Amino acid sequence: MRIIHSDKIRDAIKEMCIEANLVLSKDVEKRILAAEKEESSELGGKILSQLKENMEIAKAESIPICQDTGMAIIFLEIGQEVHIEGEYLEDAVNEGVRRGYEEGYLRKSVVGDPLLRVNTKDNTPAVIHTSIVPGEQVKITVAPKNPDEIKVATKKDVSLSDTAVSLPKTE
């Protein structure tokens, strides 16, 4: 049985919320650049050029790629040999989202009750999907989503040791 503190999960989600809204994955960036070179229509070329410029500005200025930073969709794959101690997992996830959207200066557009349409002002609650899988790892995927599109997903494996966190990027 491996033990991981909920603070590690909270902090990883905070960073992932920011990163997923500021940086496109390499595969998406490559496709946009290739499409710009191959586009035959003038309008299509202008749009792809604007997307490329937007990517560059977002990266250079550390600002969101899009002003609509979406609702946080969190996927957790938790190894069956993992024990999470500390805060209740759902609270840790939502606190990570709250901190990420606050510290990353991301737009907060989630409403608590869809009928009343009152903004929660902190982009919580997140939509949380949890799977129990074999092993001793916790894999977290953060995918900001708005109603019209799914943005970049960021994946990280949170190490269960006290000293290391493995943070591979999806490419």
The class by helix and strand makeup works out as alpha/beta
Relative strand content:
15-25%
Element order, helices and strands? EHHHEEHEEEE
Number of strands: 7
Protein architecture, described:
- It is a single chain.
- This protein is of the alpha/beta class and 171 residues long.
- It contains 4 helices and 7 strands; from the N terminus they run βαααββαββββ.
- Strands 2, 4, 5, 6 and 7 form a 5-stranded mixed β-sheet that branches. The chain has a two-stranded parallel sheet with strand order 1-3.
- A hairpin with a 2-residue loop joins strand 5 and strand 6.
- It is globular.
- 26% of the residues are buried.
- The C terminus is likely disordered.
List the helices and strands and how they pair.
Layout: E1 2-5, H1 6-22, H2 26-38, H3 42-61, E2 71-79, E3 82-85, H4 89-103, E4 127-133, E5 138-146, E6 149-150, E7 154-158
Parallel strand pairs: 1-3, 2-4
Antiparallel strand pairs: 2-5, 5-6, 5-7
Helix pairs in contact: 1-4, 2-3
Which features characterize this protein?
disordered C terminus, 5-stranded mixed β-sheet, 4 helices, two-stranded parallel sheet, alpha/beta, 171 residues
Q: Outline of this structure?
A:
This protein has 171 residues and is α/β, with parallel strands linked by helices. It has helices at residues 6-22, 26-38, 42-61, 89-103, and strands at 2-5, 71-79, 82-85, 127-133, 138-146, 149-150, 154-158.
